[in-house]
Amino acid sequence: MSSREVVLARVRRALADVPREERPDEVPVARDYRRVHGSRTAEETVELLAENLADYRALVHRSTAGALPGLIGRLLAERGARTLLVPPGLDASWVAASDITRVEDRASATARELDAVDSVLTGCAVAIAETGTLVLDGGPDQGRRRITLVPDHHLCVVRVPEQVVDSVPQALPRLAPDRPLTWISGPSATSDIELDRVEGVHGPRTLEVILLTGA
């Protein structure tokens, strides 16, 4: 018996007591699974997010609203960035302290043109503490999905604590399934059979996250 036949036989056995006329939406599915592991304050949730982001080799910074433009300008200057891709709905004050050349998020931009950009700056839709994950949904301050996948350096601003949740089950109700969701857990990386890690293969080589308070 082939592996395919084994799998199909198991499926048939599992469905043996299901009436043929029954439809999936007619049977309620229990959703009483645990939505969060443990109990945390908002501050503890933000700390957990910072720890897990760092575990994924993201660079984590903290800032107040007033200090944000200066921090962004300094981080870009330290990288020697000369061009910055900015989504159309991003708060213009965020880059007021930098004289870097700003690149618009254009639908006509090619992959080669995006690859030539030094850095991209975005907000996010939600951040998940337990997994150290940032979720982008193509909102006005995030732009098209590809602008965060092609450039080598991504700066992402997370408003804390309002954009931070504990778990994936808490994040999902905040997200619209018909939007282009991008889930980011650290900079892009892969490893070969020898476990040699290579970064920047499927997305930005460097991810920097700014946890913004008092926005």
Separation, N- and C-terminal Cα atoms: 62 Å
Largest sheet: 6 strands, parallel
CATH topology: Rossmann fold
| Helix percent band | 10-25%
Shape: globular
Provide the spatial order of strands within the biggest beta sheet.
1-12-7-4-2-3
Protein name: LUD domain-containing protein
Pfam family, one: LUD_dom
Organism: Streptomyces kronopolitis
Domain LUD: 103-212
Please tell me about this protein's structure.
The structure is a single chain. The protein has 215 residues and is α/β, with parallel strands linked by helices. The chain has a single domain, classed as NagB/RpiA/CoA transferase-like (Rossmann fold), CATH 3.40.50.10420. Helix content is 22%, strand content 24%. It contains 5 helices and 12 strands. The strands form 3 sheets. A 6-stranded parallel beta sheet has the order 1-12-7-4-2-3, with helices on both faces. A 4-stranded mixed beta sheet has the order 8-5-6-9. It has a two-stranded antiparallel sheet with strand order 10-11. A hairpin with a 4-residue loop joins strand 5 and strand 6. The model has no long low-confidence stretch (mean pLDDT 91).
